[in-house]
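Contributing new records

If you add data, match the layout below exactly. Sequence lines come first and carry their own label; structure lines follow with theirs. Keep one chain per record. Anything else will be rejected by the validation script.
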Amino acid sequence: MSRPAVKAGLAIPFALALAASAGSGSAAEQPTSYSPVAIKEDFQTTLKRMAAAKAGIMQKQKALLEDRYDLADKPVQGVAMSRGKPVQGGVRVRLAGGTDWDQLGKMSPEEIRQKKLFPAGFLPLPHPNHGEGGMVFPQFLIDEVNKQEQRDLTRFDLDFDLPDRFLPEFPAPIFLTTRPDLGDVSQGKLVTIDNYYALFNGILNPKQIEGLRLLVTPFPQQQFNQTEDRRSERPHRGVACFDCHANGHTTAATHLAGDIRPQELRHRIDTPSLRGVNVQRLFGSQRALKSVEDFTEFEQRAAYFDGDPVTATKKGVNILERGSQVHFMGELQALLDFPPAPKLDVEGRLIKGKASEQELRGEALFYGKAACAGCHTPPYFTDNTMHNLQVERFFEPQTVNGRLAKADGPIKTFPLRGIKDSPPYLHDDRLLTLDDTVEFFNLVLQRGLSAEEKADLVAFLRTL
């Protein structure tokens, strides 16, 4: 959360208010689901205090990332995203001393838990400042939006934490289900309020153009608004849907799930791609929304404001009208297609004349020993439901940089089409590469894959 709570006339982080003991005897210290509304600390004091703390907070997060992962630049030769950005390869999660992946894969969850051998990089990843939370954008997105719109998405208290090499390419290409003949219709540009009309007039119908206009229009948000309770240095117009979902895809901009309390249990959330939402039926951080229209309507009321409608009203929540706005936005989103996969046939299976032997072996594993297809069914490689991986079997509850690692609960089965264009992986960015992702599921689901089999499976995933 981003607001300071107030106790005895002093501003303290809201997370502390949530963590206060229920038995302390002071009403101000009771745990609460709500954010403070009346802020007692003036803005300049908040700015000075939080800006001064920024370097220390980011250094702490950097140290955590370096301890968990190998962050070196190791692109995979001959493998790139749709517009040519190199794909990072290799297992980046660090193992505890004295073990290797084969040994770990032969242990039971109970043994791994007892010996404290579960890799730290497989634990939930904290937000750059978990007690504070809120939307944080990569610098390349901040720079381009500022250049086009003179709208600065810089936070004075936080920066984005993951290196650019592990993020999706930018600007991402846009593929439309209605115009596959055009290929990438973005012309290599970030679509904003400045250029959307020139780019799409004559390609979209009037409803869709209006839907796109709303998706690139900024509206007030928890950290970016006009009140004293903001995290931008100047009063702010807000954020647009396509700031997080840039070009209908993702930049891996991060936030905290708004539908969990207390603060320490809130999931860091990696912005999912909007590609292929026309074939999906579950939306929102806990997948409680059953259509892209529901997701669109409630996103600015809920996720924009950490799930708190009280502060949303104070900061200027934008209430969308279902018939003339929500449906137009939903119709545009439903046109966003996955990138081409030239090695797949119409049923989502590899074409033997185009696939390598390694990719074909990986496909056999996907449907066989690895059993990935049980959840990721072709042609879009999702079953449109949720599954509880019960990762908590492997470790004792522990708090890391403000994030209490316990049970995550059920997680949506995301589509795997175009997956190499959407790093990092899992719902909270904890897996930097597809190699990490295969190691994670091999261990958590106890598949017993060999090193060669894991490499084959990764090769297949890159064809999707």
